[in-house]
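Supplementary Methods. Inverse-folding protocol.

Structures were first reduced to a discrete structure-token string of length 67. This string, shown here, constituted the complete conditioning input.
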């Protein structure tokens, strides 16, 4: 039975690993805070242990980015 292929939609998860834009090192999710104005969204901050770079992204509970 090969019916259920586990096709993963393009969603964000808390276990995501993002490549650092600077040094390509894997960035780890370091902080999650509720978005101040977008209800149901949170801000996730990723830190690079190698170069100290930090990036943020905004997603909702289902892993969707706002428009
Ligand atoms: Zn880096």
């Amino acid at each position: 039975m090969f019916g259920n292929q586990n096709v993963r939609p393009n969603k964000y998860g808390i276990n995501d690993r993002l490549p650092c834009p600077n040094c390509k090192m894997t960035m780890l999710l370091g902080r999650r805070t509720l978005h101040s104005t977008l209800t149901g969204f949170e801000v996730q901050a990723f830190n690079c242990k190698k170069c100290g770079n930090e990036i943020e992204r905004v997603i909702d509970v289902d892993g969707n980015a706002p428009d």
